[in-house]
Amino acid sequence: MKIGVIAANGKVGRLIVKEALERGMDVTAIVRSANRTEAKKVIQKDIMALTREDLEGFDVVVDAFGIWDDEKMNLHSVTLNHLADILSGSSTRLLVVGGAGSLYMDKDHSQRLFETADFPKEYLPVSRGQGKSLDELRKRNDVKWTYISPAAEFDPEGKKTGSYVLAGEEFTVNEKGESYISYADYALALVDEAEKGNHIRERISVRK
């Protein structure tokens, strides 16, 4: 399997690269600056400079792009729309590293996590930005996308346990009432989805 990882230098991107390489996949790191991953194959380009030709031949492209600058939250939509446009009509699947804030709190899907009263204000801009990009992605029937939301507590330093719970559109917790996943176990879940391709044009979520 040929897999390209956009924003591979980021914390979650590097772990996705590592997980895919450990499974013997043909991995290309797609990075804006010098490659800091374990991948030997590299495309060094800004995400907005990527072309259809750049992404030809990949079975899966992972979009691990993220931004925290409140003034640039529109880039979640801008970059994801660009990737969808250049992958439109192709057989390449697009797996998106999403956020937890857009997960629904009820079966009617009338309220999202970031719309609850006690949602941390410091995470509101990024959650709204990611939520908007997901809303736009849902309209695309010309791209084989899968949006993968982590748990509310997304731990960059957490250990890889080798297990996770796969859920859907709704916010879920474990038996202790916790919504938690480490970056390493999230990477495991994402690469599993890359291999299996069970959730085309769906949003899924993962937690411990």
UniProtKB/TrEMBL annotation:
Coiled coil: none annotated. Residues 8-192 form the NAD(P)-binding domain. It comes from the Bacteria. GO terms for molecular function: oxidoreductase activity, acting on the CH-NH group of donors, NAD or NADP as acceptor. Pfam families: NAD_binding_10. This is NAD(P)-binding domain-containing protein.
